[in-house]
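User: Please predict the structure of the protein below. I'd like the answer in structure-token form so I can feed it into my own downstream comparison script.

Assistant: Understood. Taking the following sequence of 277 residues as input:
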Amino acid sequence: MATTPADWAEVTKALGRRGNMLRDTTYHTGFPRRDLHVVSDGVVVTAGLALGTHVGFVRYADGSTMVMGDVVVTEHELQHVIDAWQAHGLEQTALHKHLLAQTPDLWWTHVHGHSHDAVALARGLMAGFDRTGTPPPVPPQRSDPVDLDIAGMEAALGARGTTEDGLYKVLFVRRETITDGRLILPPGLGASSAFNFQPLGGGRAALSGDCVMRAEEVPHVLSALRRGGIQLVELHNHHLTEEPRLFFTHFWAVGDGVRLARALRPAVDATDVVPNG
């Protein structure tokens, strides 16, 4: 169902921070881990590049709500967070990495819930977040220009992106209708390819991303990424019962922004996706 931020007022109150609407169907809220000083491959990783916890709520015609999230936790926090969620009836659908070697040791876990009580879902999420060092929200920051050849990168990828939190981001979504049991998943909810570029100066960037694939696309995408000199980090699922079955790969690279975009293009072309928006 289409909703507005007003429909999620009680969820907003339970989460303790405001979110935003995506495509008039998904109420999205971010919990960036700005409390963490993370280094991977000699790069100080910003919260926007790979440390951004995200949760999304969707309302259905029967009055029920689905919530999905991708949550970054330290290794010390992980079991406590999972125990809290399980005590509130929330499921884990993935446990994986977004980065290769990093300090401190981090994990990312996908959380899923479906209920007729959206506020209970939000409170269950917070029971887990309260066992982490996730900091309070901060006022929105102005998006300054990034030191990257955006025009060249957009030409290479065949899509336009956005500048946010000092990063350049490009998003693609699957063409198919994705279902989880009898529920349709809105475009982008756990079924998107996201490419994040963190400027490092002189047109160089750190690339962290997530590419969505059907099973038959997986070998072509992984081969394309490696041919482009991009390091593979993880191959996993976001859902348990979605149709068609989807796989996701996280990857990492550091180099010239345009060269990285060109290296990504064959992987994008190997999947049935379209640019977001």
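That's the full token string. The chain has a mean pLDDT of 95.
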